[in-house]
Design a protein that fits this description.
The chain is an alpha+beta fold. It has helices at residues 46-59, 82-96, 103-117, 119-124, 201-207, 211-223, 255-264, 269-273, and strands at 10-21, 25-26, 32-33, 41-44, 125-127, 142-144, 147-149, 152-157, 161-167, 181-199, 236-246, 276-280, 293-297, 308-312, 317-319. It has eight helices and 15 strands.
Length: 324
């Protein structure tokens, strides 16, 4: 397990599909699948994707090597009280510092404690200043995490279906004479989505996000739907995880310059993402399954931008790097 702080920038593209399910219901629209009203393309929020990652890490946390090593608890989860955990962090900070330590120092140590204990705070960041304490109004009361997602969006328009269902049991005593009760659910027959993500080493330094944390993120993204099955999400599959790692364009002898370039980045993220394309096969006007798509990665060792390694995480393969 590599516990060194992450030093290289990463940009990644996640492809996933849904079949006869609701990947992300909209509570403002009767739990209909989210969509863009201008294009009717389906949408999955960044918060939804982060929830899947949190759930996976909560189910399969790696062993903690020591009390001072990074922990893998999850702060934002069902039934959690953020203020209670915040107070634990503040108490740990107060106990470890002299009594006359300034509040700003206590706030910094409390933030560091929360980042160390909670994987999701260390990864995604969060608002920690929820109470009237040293974190309130402090520069450390809001943590910006190194990993950020965009909304996922389907490649083509979706047509949500409303399916009526029946139940032979009733809920209330006064309805006992009814033969059945009626309900409904909303599904997307099929859609392929793409979401983009970014990992910043500059913010990793502030939260203590390590290479081991990043490896756990890849594992969570590849397997997050396998342990999130439900009637609404029975057939969700990750079809691709393209990780563009920035490693620097210089010769290995120029280690310092490579380190600087790897931290800053060697190419624009949107240019890297544009090399992965998904289009319908000839003769298809709308997708019914993944077999109707042709997914092409146009990057090769010869045309990959300098200083970039493309990790095909879903295949266990890598391309590059190409240096000057």
């Amino acid at each position: 397990m590599n516990t060194n702080i992450l030093t290289n920038r990463h940009d990644f593209l996640l492809l996933f599909e849904v079949t006869n399910g609701n990947p992300n219901g909209d509570p403002d629209a009767g739990n209909l699948p989210r969509l863009d009203p201008n294009t009717n393309r389906g949408i999955v929020s960044d918060v939804c994707l982060k929830r899947k990652v949190r759930n996976f890490v909560e189910l399969f946390p790696p062993p903690r090597e020591s009390e001072t090593a990074n922990g893998y608890n999850i702060l934002i989860k069902q039934g959690a009280v953020i203020e209670t955990e915040q107070k634990r962090g503040i108490k740990a900070a107060v106990d470890s510092l002299p009594k006359d330590a300034p509040d700003s120092k206590k706030a910094e140590v409390a933030k560091d404690w929360l980042c160390r204990e909670f994987y999701d705070v260390r990864t995604f960041g969060g608002v920690l200043s929820t109470g009237d304490d040293v974190l309130k109004g402090s520069a450390f009361g809001q943590v910006r995490g190194p990993v950020q997602f965009t909304f996922g969006q389907s490649f083509h328009p979706i047509t949500p279906l409303e399916v009526t269902i029946t139940r032979c049991a009733v809920t209330k005593e006064e309805d006992a004479k009814k033969e059945r009760t009626m309900g409904n659910k909303h599904i997307v027959p099929y859609a392929l989505y793409a979401a983009k993500g970014y990992v910043s080493p500059a913010f990793a330094e502030r939260t203590g996000f390590t290479q081991a944390d990043l490896d756990l993120l890849w594992q969570a993204l590849l397997h997050m739907f396998e342990h999130d099955r439900s009637a609404a999400r029975g057939e969700m599959v990750v079809r691709g995880l393209y990780d563009f790692e920035h490693v620097g364009t210089q010769h290995a002898n120029n280690a310092e310059q490579n380190k600087k370039e790897a931290r800053l980045g060697c190419a624009h993220a949107h240019q890297l993402f544009e090399g992965v394309k998904a289009s319908l096969k000839p003769g298809k006007s709308f997708p019914e399954s993944f077999a109707d798509y042709e997914v092409r990665c146009e990057w090769t060792v010869e045309n990959l931008p300098l200083g970039i390694i493309l990790h095909l995480r879903h295949e266990g393969l890598s391309i590059g790097p190409r240096r000057a």
